[in-house]
Task: inverse folding
């Protein structure tokens, strides 16, 4: 099956570079230069993936993220020259899957598209229940966590936090998302909870908690459980 990809980008050079490279990789690529053009294409037929620039002639890409999320669960990747963390968090909270800062290598874009597709695909078929990477084995259904063959004893909150990261393995989860999903929507400002529990989890899971290999910090944004 050929995957259909919509590239929304007003910079002609970047747009044609992405179009040709992604077409070579086997994607069917459509392009739009503005929000209105993107909306028209989306209304006609939803693609499998959207790659979206933020600064567009008729508005901000964030508007399109919000609009797409009301109707579709397809992966949305942001490519932008802006790199303020607040902006990045807003986009991820609005439902974007990932964020690349320009200039980026096309190989990196392809890798992120594959991860996003795998996640959306898996999420549609069955919820992720296990995670294996190197010395770490997590089985959410039996609530078992093993590190180097040893069963770890986690508190209920530690387990909940870890489970939330497993469900988005390989992707950054924002502080706000983690606080909302683990503690509840009234706790979104309590980032110290997150720091505390992440410290406890690292102490149990990581060989060297000061150099984590599994529970990775995305500075100022959130955390990411290292994937495969
Ligand atoms: Ca632009």
Result:
């Amino acid at each position: 099956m050929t995957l259909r990809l919509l590239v929304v980008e007003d910079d002609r050079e970047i747009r044609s570079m992405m179009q040709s490279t992604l077409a070579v990789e086997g994607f069917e690529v459509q392009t739009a230069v503005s929000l209105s053009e993107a909306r028209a294409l989306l209304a006609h037929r939803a693609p499998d993936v959207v790659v979206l620039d933020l600064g567009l002639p008729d508005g901000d890409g964030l508007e399109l993220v919000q609009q797409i999320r009301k109707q579709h669960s397809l992966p949305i990747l942001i490519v932008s020259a802006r790199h303020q963390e607040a902006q990045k968090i807003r986009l991820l909270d609005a439902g974007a899957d990932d964020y690349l800062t320009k200039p980026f290598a096309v190989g990196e874009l392809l890798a992120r598209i594959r991860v996003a597709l795998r996640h959306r695909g898996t999420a549609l078929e069955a919820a992720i229940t296990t995670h294996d990477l190197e010395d770490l084995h997590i089985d959410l259904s039996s609530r078992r966590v093993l590190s180097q063959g040893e069963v770890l004893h986690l508190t209920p909150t530690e387990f909940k936090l870890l489970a939330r990261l497993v469900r988005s393995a390989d992707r950054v989860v924002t502080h706000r998302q983690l606080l909302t999903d683990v503690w509840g929507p009234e706790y979104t400002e309590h980032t110290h909870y997150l720091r505390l529990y992440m410290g406890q989890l690292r102490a149990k899971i990581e060989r060297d908690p000061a150099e984590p290999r599994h529970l990775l910090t995305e500075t100022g944004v959130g955390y990411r459980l290292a994937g495969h």
Remarks:
- The first strand starts at residue 4 and ends at 8.
- Helices lie at 12-24, 35-44, 61-71, 85-94, 106-125, 156-167, 175-182, 191-205.
- The pocket of calcium ion is lined by residues 10-11, 53, 55-56 (CB under 6 Å).
